[in-house]
Design a protein that fits this description.
The complex is a heterodimer. By secondary structure, chain A is an alpha/beta fold. Chain A contains five helices and five strands; from the N terminus they run H-E-E-H-E-H-E-H-E-H. Classes of the chains: A alpha/beta, B alpha+beta. Chains A and B meet through helix 2 and helix 3 of A and helix 1, helix 2 and helix 5 of B.
Chain lengths: 112, 147
């Protein structure tokens, strides 16, 4: 599944401009704990998180995460969005809860 | 391994400065990417480096990241002036953490850092003197790939 399709499934609004929406997602990982992201995420995954700080962008960039979606309608500051853009890391936001977002994304990944 | 072909650079890490946490690891990752380190190895180095950098920022007054690249391997030495680790065996246990509430609010301090560094490194050496500081040395092999 590519990022554009995943964002359509969870009504995700893109926050970063000029990013590649055709990037292939290897998996989805949902966590607010960046320690767990660093320890367990697969490269190329989509990260769903409720944590909104600069460490999310740095963790995602260093761990080769494909894109980050903030759940519950959370949005990072403009400074964080700029940093993500600089790192070529797409950011998006969805009004869904973490559970709802996982529910919508799970079937296509289960069928792989 | 020809010593004259080694590249070395040291990066200071400021303890307690959460706002810039990850900067040194991003610099190291970008530098290694530029010289052609392959993506899977680069990712392991970046993750190990970030965990080590976070440990200095969370616990120490100051520290240094010392990067050495040879045609055979990338070596990173993180040394700090800090409280040290009284029981390394305990600190290496997954889930064991002495993190404060502030660290946890930032998404860290789950007790995965040191085991995760070890998991990503080919060699892992950790030495600490309580009250003085900690020295962590890791290396990741480049499989003889010429850079």
């Amino acid at each position: 599944m590519i990022l554009k399709e995943a964002l359509a499934l969870i009504d995700g609004a893109l926050l970063t401009a000029e990013c590649d929406l055709n990037v292939e997602l290897s998996n989805v990982f949902a966590s607010d704990l960046m320690s767990d992201v660093l320890a367990f995420i697969e490269a190329g995954s989509l990260l769903l998180t409720g944590l909104v700080n600069a460490h999310v962008v740095r963790t995602a960039s260093l761990a080769d995460v494909a894109a980050v979606v903030f759940v519950q309608g959370k949005r990072p500051t403009a400074e964080i969005v700029t940093e993500a853009q600089h790192n070529n890391l797409p950011l998006a936001s969805t009004a869904l809860t973490m559970f709802e977002a996982c529910q919508r994304l799970a079937p296509p990944f289960r069928e792989r | 391994m020809a010593k004259e072909r080694a590249f070395r650079q040291a990066f200071p890490v400021k303890g307690g400065d959460f706002s810039r946490a990850g900067d040194v690891s991003c610099l190291i990752k970008n530098l290694l990417k530029e010289i052609g380190v392959p993506a899977p190895i680069l990712r392991r180095l970046a993750i190990a480096s970030y965990e080590a950098e976070m440990n200095i920022i969370m616990y120490a007054a100051e520290g240094t990241a010392d990067l050495t690249v040879t045609p055979d391997e990338v070596r990173l030495v993180y040394s700090d002036r800090g409280p040290g680790i009284p029981d390394i065996t305990l600190a290496m246990r997954e889930g064991y953490s002495t993190a404060t509430a502030e660290m946890r609010e930032l998404g860290f301090g789950a007790g995965m850092g040191l085991p995760n560094i070890k998991k990503n490194a080919d060699t892992f050496l950790l030495a600490s003197e309580p009250g003085r500081g900690t020295r962590l040395e890791i290396a990741i092999r480049l499989n003889g790939r010429q850079l």
